[in-house]
Design brief:
Layout: H1 3-8, H2 11-22, H3 28-45, E1 48-51, E2 62-66, H4 72-78, E3 85-90, H5 99-105, E4 109-111, H6 118-129, E5 133-136, H7 157-164, E6 168-173, E7 183-187, H8 195-202, H9 209-219, H10 222-235
Parallel strand pairs: 1-7, 2-5, 2-6, 3-4, 3-5
Antiparallel strand pairs: 6-7
Protein backbone atom coordinates (compact mmCIF):
# COMPACT_ATOMS: atom_id res chain seq x y z
CA UNK A 1 0.00 0.00 0.00
CA UNK A 2 1.39 3.48 -0.83
CA UNK A 3 2.85 5.41 2.12
CA UNK A 4 0.55 8.39 1.46
CA UNK A 5 -2.51 6.14 1.80
CA UNK A 6 -1.36 4.99 5.24
CA UNK A 7 -0.85 8.59 6.37
CA UNK A 8 -4.34 9.57 5.17
CA UNK A 9 -6.05 6.90 7.25
CA UNK A 10 -7.53 8.04 10.60
CA UNK A 11 -7.00 4.85 12.72
CA UNK A 12 -9.52 5.81 15.42
CA UNK A 13 -12.22 6.41 12.83
CA UNK A 14 -11.49 3.13 11.07
CA UNK A 15 -11.75 1.26 14.37
CA UNK A 16 -15.01 3.04 15.24
CA UNK A 17 -16.61 2.18 11.89
CA UNK A 18 -15.56 -1.47 12.04
CA UNK A 19 -16.80 -2.04 15.59
CA UNK A 20 -20.12 -0.38 14.78
CA UNK A 21 -20.52 -2.38 11.59
CA UNK A 22 -19.56 -5.83 12.78
CA UNK A 23 -21.44 -6.10 16.04
CA UNK A 24 -18.65 -5.73 18.60
CA UNK A 25 -20.04 -5.65 22.15
CA UNK A 26 -18.20 -2.39 22.83
CA UNK A 27 -20.74 -0.50 20.70
CA UNK A 28 -23.92 -2.47 21.28
CA UNK A 29 -25.63 0.38 23.14
CA UNK A 30 -24.58 2.88 20.50
CA UNK A 31 -26.08 0.67 17.78
CA UNK A 32 -29.32 0.26 19.72
CA UNK A 33 -29.58 4.02 20.27
CA UNK A 34 -28.95 4.70 16.56
CA UNK A 35 -31.60 2.16 15.57
CA UNK A 36 -34.16 3.54 18.03
CA UNK A 37 -33.55 7.12 16.89
CA UNK A 38 -33.84 6.18 13.23
CA UNK A 39 -37.01 4.19 13.90
CA UNK A 40 -38.66 7.05 15.79
CA UNK A 41 -37.92 9.78 13.23
CA UNK A 42 -38.70 7.65 10.19
CA UNK A 43 -42.12 6.65 11.54
CA UNK A 44 -42.90 10.11 12.81
CA UNK A 45 -42.04 11.99 9.60
CA UNK A 46 -42.39 9.58 6.70
CA UNK A 47 -44.40 6.47 7.64
CA UNK A 48 -42.28 4.11 5.51
CA UNK A 49 -43.81 1.17 3.67
CA UNK A 50 -41.10 -1.38 2.87
CA UNK A 51 -41.62 -3.73 -0.06
CA UNK A 52 -39.53 -6.91 -0.47
CA UNK A 53 -37.50 -6.52 2.67
CA UNK A 54 -36.80 -10.25 2.38
CA UNK A 55 -34.44 -9.52 -0.51
CA UNK A 56 -31.87 -8.05 1.84
CA UNK A 57 -29.06 -10.45 2.77
CA UNK A 58 -29.43 -11.67 6.35
CA UNK A 59 -26.12 -10.06 7.27
CA UNK A 60 -23.16 -8.25 5.73
CA UNK A 61 -21.06 -7.77 3.87
CA UNK A 62 -23.05 -5.90 1.26
CA UNK A 63 -23.54 -2.40 -0.15
CA UNK A 64 -26.87 -0.58 -0.11
CA UNK A 65 -27.37 1.98 -2.91
CA UNK A 66 -30.34 4.33 -3.07
CA UNK A 67 -31.67 7.56 -4.50
CA UNK A 68 -31.28 10.58 -2.24
CA UNK A 69 -34.00 13.20 -1.70
CA UNK A 70 -33.57 14.28 1.91
CA UNK A 71 -31.54 13.80 5.08
CA UNK A 72 -34.49 11.69 6.15
CA UNK A 73 -33.38 8.98 3.70
CA UNK A 74 -30.68 7.80 6.09
CA UNK A 75 -33.24 7.36 8.88
CA UNK A 76 -35.59 5.41 6.62
CA UNK A 77 -32.91 3.03 5.38
CA UNK A 78 -30.99 2.67 8.62
CA UNK A 79 -33.78 0.56 10.09
CA UNK A 80 -33.59 -2.03 7.28
CA UNK A 81 -30.88 -4.07 8.99
CA UNK A 82 -30.13 -5.13 12.55
CA UNK A 83 -26.49 -4.39 11.76
CA UNK A 84 -25.26 -0.81 11.79
CA UNK A 85 -25.01 0.66 8.29
CA UNK A 86 -21.92 2.80 7.66
CA UNK A 87 -23.01 5.63 5.39
CA UNK A 88 -20.64 7.41 3.03
CA UNK A 89 -20.91 11.17 3.63
CA UNK A 90 -19.07 14.20 2.29
CA UNK A 91 -16.28 15.46 4.51
CA UNK A 92 -17.77 18.95 4.94
CA UNK A 93 -20.71 17.55 6.92
CA UNK A 94 -18.38 16.42 9.71
CA UNK A 95 -17.48 20.02 10.51
CA UNK A 96 -21.07 21.11 11.16
CA UNK A 97 -22.21 21.50 14.80
CA UNK A 98 -24.44 18.67 16.05
CA UNK A 99 -24.79 17.13 12.58
CA UNK A 100 -21.10 16.23 12.49
CA UNK A 101 -21.27 14.44 15.83
CA UNK A 102 -24.54 12.74 14.89
CA UNK A 103 -23.20 11.22 11.68
CA UNK A 104 -20.04 10.08 13.48
CA UNK A 105 -22.20 8.18 15.96
CA UNK A 106 -24.01 6.55 13.05
CA UNK A 107 -20.66 5.35 11.73
CA UNK A 108 -20.52 7.60 8.68
CA UNK A 109 -17.45 7.35 6.44
CA UNK A 110 -16.07 10.77 5.41
CA UNK A 111 -15.18 11.31 1.76
CA UNK A 112 -13.18 14.28 0.47
CA UNK A 113 -14.65 14.98 -2.97
CA UNK A 114 -11.99 17.54 -3.85
CA UNK A 115 -9.43 14.79 -4.46
CA UNK A 116 -8.99 11.06 -4.91
CA UNK A 117 -9.70 10.00 -1.31
CA UNK A 118 -7.83 6.72 -0.84
CA UNK A 119 -8.39 6.71 2.92
CA UNK A 120 -12.18 6.53 2.58
CA UNK A 121 -11.87 3.72 0.03
CA UNK A 122 -9.69 1.84 2.50
CA UNK A 123 -12.30 2.27 5.26
CA UNK A 124 -15.08 1.03 2.95
CA UNK A 125 -13.10 -2.05 1.93
CA UNK A 126 -12.11 -2.79 5.53
CA UNK A 127 -15.68 -2.49 6.84
CA UNK A 128 -16.91 -4.87 4.12
CA UNK A 129 -14.05 -7.30 4.67
CA UNK A 130 -15.05 -7.45 8.35
CA UNK A 131 -18.65 -8.32 7.42
CA UNK A 132 -20.20 -4.86 7.67
CA UNK A 133 -22.73 -2.96 5.56
CA UNK A 134 -21.99 0.24 3.65
CA UNK A 135 -24.71 2.66 2.57
CA UNK A 136 -24.14 4.79 -0.50
CA UNK A 137 -26.12 7.45 -2.38
CA UNK A 138 -24.49 7.29 -5.86
CA UNK A 139 -25.73 10.74 -6.92
CA UNK A 140 -23.71 12.23 -4.08
CA UNK A 141 -26.22 14.99 -3.44
CA UNK A 142 -29.92 15.41 -2.77
CA UNK A 143 -32.03 15.23 -5.91
CA UNK A 144 -35.72 16.14 -5.96
CA UNK A 145 -38.07 13.39 -7.09
CA UNK A 146 -39.13 15.31 -10.20
CA UNK A 147 -35.45 15.59 -11.20
CA UNK A 148 -34.73 11.88 -10.70
CA UNK A 149 -32.29 10.31 -13.10
CA UNK A 150 -30.96 13.66 -14.30
CA UNK A 151 -27.91 13.82 -12.00
CA UNK A 152 -25.10 11.38 -12.75
CA UNK A 153 -23.34 9.64 -9.86
CA UNK A 154 -20.11 11.23 -8.70
CA UNK A 155 -16.91 10.14 -10.42
CA UNK A 156 -15.35 7.13 -8.77
CA UNK A 157 -18.56 5.50 -7.54
CA UNK A 158 -18.65 2.92 -10.33
CA UNK A 159 -14.96 2.10 -9.80
CA UNK A 160 -15.49 1.62 -6.08
CA UNK A 161 -18.45 -0.71 -6.52
CA UNK A 162 -16.55 -2.78 -9.07
CA UNK A 163 -13.83 -3.40 -6.46
CA UNK A 164 -15.85 -4.53 -3.47
CA UNK A 165 -16.97 -7.96 -4.81
CA UNK A 166 -19.96 -8.16 -2.45
CA UNK A 167 -23.72 -8.07 -3.13
CA UNK A 168 -25.06 -4.63 -4.07
CA UNK A 169 -28.68 -4.02 -3.12
CA UNK A 170 -30.54 -1.24 -5.01
CA UNK A 171 -33.31 0.59 -3.15
CA UNK A 172 -35.82 3.12 -4.46
CA UNK A 173 -37.46 5.61 -2.09
CA UNK A 174 -40.49 6.92 -3.96
CA UNK A 175 -41.07 10.61 -3.49
CA UNK A 176 -41.77 13.28 -2.94
CA UNK A 177 -42.07 13.14 0.84
CA UNK A 178 -45.46 14.27 2.10
CA UNK A 179 -46.41 14.70 5.73
CA UNK A 180 -48.76 12.06 7.10
CA UNK A 181 -48.55 10.01 3.87
CA UNK A 182 -46.93 6.61 3.47
CA UNK A 183 -43.52 6.52 1.78
CA UNK A 184 -43.04 3.38 -0.37
CA UNK A 185 -39.51 1.96 -0.25
CA UNK A 186 -38.81 -0.78 -2.78
CA UNK A 187 -35.88 -3.18 -2.31
CA UNK A 188 -34.55 -4.68 -5.52
CA UNK A 189 -32.67 -7.91 -6.18
CA UNK A 190 -29.01 -7.94 -5.13
CA UNK A 191 -26.41 -7.98 -7.90
CA UNK A 192 -22.63 -7.87 -8.37
CA UNK A 193 -20.82 -5.22 -10.38
CA UNK A 194 -17.51 -6.56 -11.65
CA UNK A 195 -14.42 -4.86 -13.02
CA UNK A 196 -15.14 -6.53 -16.36
CA UNK A 197 -18.61 -4.96 -16.51
CA UNK A 198 -17.13 -1.58 -15.63
CA UNK A 199 -14.59 -1.85 -18.43
CA UNK A 200 -17.23 -2.91 -20.94
CA UNK A 201 -19.50 -0.01 -20.02
CA UNK A 202 -16.67 2.49 -20.21
CA UNK A 203 -15.65 1.11 -23.59
CA UNK A 204 -19.10 1.90 -25.02
CA UNK A 205 -19.80 5.00 -27.09
CA UNK A 206 -21.97 6.58 -24.39
CA UNK A 207 -20.29 9.00 -22.00
CA UNK A 208 -20.93 8.15 -18.36
CA UNK A 209 -22.37 4.72 -19.27
CA UNK A 210 -21.14 3.09 -16.04
CA UNK A 211 -22.66 5.83 -13.90
CA UNK A 212 -25.95 5.71 -15.80
CA UNK A 213 -26.05 1.95 -15.26
CA UNK A 214 -26.02 2.50 -11.49
CA UNK A 215 -28.89 4.99 -11.74
CA UNK A 216 -30.87 2.52 -13.84
CA UNK A 217 -30.40 -0.12 -11.14
CA UNK A 218 -32.15 2.24 -8.71
CA UNK A 219 -34.72 4.16 -10.77
CA UNK A 220 -35.43 1.08 -12.88
CA UNK A 221 -37.30 -0.24 -9.84
CA UNK A 222 -40.00 2.42 -10.22
CA UNK A 223 -42.08 0.51 -12.75
CA UNK A 224 -42.19 -2.63 -10.60
CA UNK A 225 -42.98 -0.53 -7.53
CA UNK A 226 -45.91 1.23 -9.18
CA UNK A 227 -47.23 -2.03 -10.62
CA UNK A 228 -47.10 -3.72 -7.24
CA UNK A 229 -48.71 -0.80 -5.42
CA UNK A 230 -51.52 -0.64 -7.98
CA UNK A 231 -52.14 -4.37 -7.59
CA UNK A 232 -52.32 -4.16 -3.82
CA UNK A 233 -54.61 -1.13 -3.92
CA UNK A 234 -57.01 -2.89 -6.30
CA UNK A 235 -57.10 -5.89 -3.98
CA UNK A 236 -57.95 -3.72 -0.98
Amino acid sequence: MPEDENKALPPALVSHQITLATGADEYRWSRRFNAALAYMWSRLLARPRYLHRERLPEKGPYVLISNHQSFLDVMLLHTLSKQNICWIAKLSLFGKPLLGEAIRRFGAIPVDRSQADLSSVKIVLTVLREGGIVGLFPEGTRVKWEKRGEVLPKAGVASLLSRVNVPIVPVLIRGPYRKFHRTPIYIGEAFHFSKKELQELRASDHQGAAERYLLECIYGLEEALERELSGKESEA
